[in-house]
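Onboarding guide, step 5: your first structure request.
Type a short instruction followed by the sequence, for example:

Predict the 3D structure of this protein.
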Amino acid sequence: MIKVIKLTYNNFAENTYICYDQTKDCIIIDPGCFTTQEEDHLAKVISENNLTPVKVLHTHSHLDHVFGTSFVLSKYNIELYIHKEDRPTLDSFKLVADFYGIPLKTTPPKEFKYINVSEGVDFGDSHLDVRFVPGHAPGHIVFICNESKFVINGDCLFDGSIGRTDLPGGNHEILISSIKSELFSLDDDYLVYTGHGPETTIGKEKATNPFF
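The system replies with structure tokens like these:
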């Protein structure tokens, strides 16, 4: 069974997730650690839980979700996986950081692997399904654990809200359609881990989210 550790980092209050199973192999999703203190905290959590990182995954590559990617890749000598449509967002990382006046210690790597949505993601003895949910970002994906009934959904769906669509590559109609087809098709009791803020459930958002 997959267990999830949620860590909140950087000035955007971004949620970073560590997923692991009984093998103690783990994946790190959207590493947003920005400061040296946040990097040290992430490493401490991994060490204290006796985990072995094997992959870094991006739901999408907006800068607040990837500040810590290069740190994690370098420290643990592992590889990054993204959706092929997410490459332009990742490539624009430095340009966006410069626009916001955010000083950078490192930039994301130029080498990475593409996730095959139909194959999903494997680590340890576990598997996560992957679904393509664009709208907030062109290459946005989510990671679903059917055994434990949760979805790590990045910035698609929030508690009572949805992701912004006014950023480059965003599209409100596409996001609404993507959420309805790819997230609301899950059972109501699936727990939704969000990219910012508290968890919610599919059922709650279907019943009460004002955007639907």
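Each response can be followed by summary notes, for example: The chain has a mean pLDDT of 96.
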